[in-house]
Design goal:
The protein has eight helices and no strands. It has 233 residues and is mostly helical. Helix 2 (20-52) runs parallel beside helix 5 (114-156), helix 5 packs antiparallel against helix 6 (158-205) and helix 6 (158-205) runs antiparallel to helix 8 (216-232). The longest helix is centred in the C-terminal third of the chain and has 48 residues, at 158-205.
Length: 233
């Protein structure tokens, strides 16, 4: 059964709540790294201006080098913190799912597909890491980067700012049309992978019967059809 949008977000927040400090720390470090990258064009402009005016390049070059190294180091540290936090979220989700599955009634387990349950615990839970590392945190950083870039372009070149804003509006309109379809397709792909796992699990549980009846080709075709459906999704 598909959860409502608000219920899904509440469930995600419940998973990440024990790791909120790591999420905040990783987000701040990633933002600092992004801001260092945002300062690089201005520092590069200072180097070019100093070269054109025959001034010393030591200060501007050292500033640009420091920004590059600082941005790389802080960004890498933030990424490490977020990835570690993401693995913690996945671990918590897997433990919670396993706890619920093993406490189900036998009749409920018989009704469900074991392969689909295995897919939920293994592949589906890994998506939680992407949601918080590449989704939430990267989105917040991107908003700050966008505001900073717009301000910089307004200072440096008004025409460049107008062109960039026009492109952003166009791309944003296209994304708003495409992303809901991509989200639905991703959900259907995960369901298809679960179905494939359920079919393969059924075949492996009845492996002796399949071999004794010479039904290998038929079962291979069945699993292949499920894999093809997952590919198409």
């Amino acid at each position: 059964m598909k959860l409502p949008e608000t219920a899904s977000w509440r469930l995600l927040v419940a998973y990440v709540r024990p790791h909120r400090r790591a999420l905040l720390l990783g987000g701040v470090l990633s933002l600092v790294g992004s801001l260092a990258g945002l300062a690089m064009p201005l520092l590069a402009k200072m180097v070019i201006d100093a070269f054109g005016e025959q001034r010393s390049l030591v200060g501007p070059v050292l500033g640009l080098t420091a920004a590059v190294l600082l941005g790389a180091a802080v960004g890498a540290l933030g990424r490490y913190v977020l990835e570690r936090m993401g693995e913690g979220v996945v671990f918590s989700a897997r433990r919670s799912l396993v706890d619920r599955m093993l406490r189900l009634r036998v009749s409920e387990v018989d009704r469900l597909k074991p392969g689909d349950l295995l897919s939920r615990v293994t592949s589906d839970t890994t998506l939680l890491r992407a949601v918080f590392t590449d989704g939430v945190v990267e989105t917040v950083s991107a908003v700050f980067m966008l505001v900073g870039a717009v301000v910089m372009m307004a200072i440096m070149d008004g025409l460049l700012l107008l062109i960039t804003l026009a492109v952003l509006i166009l791309v944003g309109s296209l994304v708003s049309l495409v992303m809901p379809r991509i989200r639905r397709a991703s959900t259907q792909a995960q369901v298809a992978v679960g179905e494939m796992g359920a079919v393969l699990d059924r075949v492996l549980q009845a492996f002796r019967t399949v071999k004794a009846s010479g039904a290998e080709d038929r079962e291979i075709a069945t699993v292949g059809a499920a894999a093809r459906e997952a590919r198409d999704r």
